[in-house]
């Protein structure tokens, strides 16, 4: 079982009545048909549906508690991303099938005519991204508007792409569990942007080749403008598009510039700046400085303290408290 689970406070419905569950799921996503495979009869448990809203994101967690085939009858042009939390899920499209166990990430659109085969123990996390939002962020990457909307090829994320997705969804699940973080709408918009940009940069679609082919060279002044903007706004919940706009360039050009200059990404560079700033604060021995470690982290733009502690230890080989004590 993975750490991308939504908290129990998000439980929307628990019932053995499939008709009642269907009505709730259709309100969340789209109309669908379902059938119980004759070849796999067996006991069943309650259908459990968790759902919450955080800014533009509405993650939902579903377990049907039985062997069942689900076929959406339309997704309104949106992209549906399914992350398997436990059990196994098989997604069958017009000409292909793929799936797997915990950590599997599957993409589907209504053009794929997907059918999802759940096992009794299967539980998944679902996110839906509207077409207009995907298009907007793709045009930001390209630095221009294209005639054709983005069309993802139905696929399962693999390797580093899947791992990065799981990290982002873990952050999402932790954020909606924390009242202090879930009340910050701008963080939700930033995370939604990161999720969509990750898909646009790593997953096959009709504009992917153009994204990698059409990035102009970034002028030094724009690159340095981006670096200065980050340093001056570490405490803000910056997104890639915020930085690109401040630098006066496209997000893709900015990403390529940081790749060439430091073999990194703008957001990783931002994290490095934040970690270095926290470390400098913790090494300050001025008796008038009485900021706690948590306050120092939040002052430098870290909103999730658990993730901050992990990143700090990975970067410096010691905990923030060890840095502060000088041991």
TrEMBL record:
It comes from the Bacteria. Residues 224-326 form the HTH araC/xylS-type domain. InterPro entries: AraC-bd_2, AraC_XylS_family_regulators, Homeodomain-like_sf, HTH_AraC. The keyword Transcription regulation applies. Keywords: DNA-binding, Transcription, Transcription regulation. It holds the Pfam family HTH_18. This is AraC family transcriptional regulator. It comes from Mesopusillimonas faecipullorum.
């Amino acid at each position: 079982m993975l750490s991308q689970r939504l908290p129990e406070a998000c439980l929307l419905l628990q019932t053995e009545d499939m008709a009642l569950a269907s009505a709730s799921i259709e309100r969340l996503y789209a109309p669908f048909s379902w059938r119980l495979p004759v070849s796999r009869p067996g006991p069943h448990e309650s259908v459990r549906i968790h759902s919450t809203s955080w800014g533009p994101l509405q993650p939902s967690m579903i377990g049907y508690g039985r062997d069942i085939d689900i076929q959406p009858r339309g997704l309104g042009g949106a992209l549906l991303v399914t992350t398997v939390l436990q059990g196994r899920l098989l997604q069958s499209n017009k000409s292909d099938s793929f799936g797997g166990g915990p950590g599997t990430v599957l993409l589907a659109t209504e053009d794929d005519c997907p059918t999802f085969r759940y096992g009794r123990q299967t539980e998944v996390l679902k996110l839906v991204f509207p077409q207009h939002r995907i298009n907007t962020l793709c045009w930001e990457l390209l630095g221009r508007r294209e005639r054709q909307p983005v069309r993802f090829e139905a696929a399962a994320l693999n390797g580093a792409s899947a791992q990065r997705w799981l990290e982002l969804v873990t952050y999402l699940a932790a954020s909606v569990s924390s009242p202090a973080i879930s009340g910050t709408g701008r963080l939700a918009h930033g995370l939604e942007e990161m999720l969509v940009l990750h898909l646009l940069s790593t997953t096959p679609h009709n504009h992917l080749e153009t994204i990698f082919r059409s990035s102009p060279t970034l002028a030094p002044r724009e690159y340095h403008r981006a670096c200065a903007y980050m340093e001056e706004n570490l405490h803000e919940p910056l997104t890639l598009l915020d930085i690109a706009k401040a630098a006066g360039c496209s997000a893709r050009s900015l990403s390529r510039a940081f790749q060439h200059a430091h073999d990194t990404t703008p957001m990783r560079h931002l994290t490095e700046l934040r970690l270095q700033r926290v470390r400098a604060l913790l090494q300050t021995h001025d008796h008038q400085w009485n900021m706690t470690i948590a306050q120092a982290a939040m002052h430098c733009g870290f909103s999730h303290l658990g993730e901050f502690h992990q990143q700090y230890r990975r970067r410096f080989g010691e905990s923030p408290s060890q840095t502060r004590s000088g041991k």
